[in-house]
Amino acid sequence: MADLISEEKIILFLDSFNCIANNKGILPTKELAKVLKKIGENPTQEELQDMINEVDKEGTGNIKFPQFLSVMAQKVDSLVAEDEIREAFKVFDMDGNGFISRSELKHVMMNLGERMSEEECNSLVEEADVDGDGQINYEEFTAMMNSAGSYTKGTNSWE
To answer: pTM for the whole thing?
Structure first.
């Protein structure tokens, strides 16, 4: 966990948590929003409830710092993954227009050492192209990258 979060962030999280928690280091779940605001987060009510459900699985209505830190580590990890996907999209979107065309996909894949036939390229774009415009936009790319599997060249499909 410490690998995911810098020491400075952990100190920020701990200080913010302790400002609102009681003297035994216990934070009522109804106070979680205050801690998050102190560290610069502004979650929606739904996001807040998801976090509470994650940290208070027993339904005690209380959170201790290790539980809070665990959820924040997952959040940091998720943000890192999102940044990596955004950077990967920029690599494929060579002209910077917000879309990955078939030619851009094929060009980048070839530069990565992956030979791709016209048919394979078309199949991959068709699989990812939810809105049917013949290109892959950022949302489609993110969905493709987050799918629970990988593209199998031989079957031209995502598993």
So the answer is: 0.53
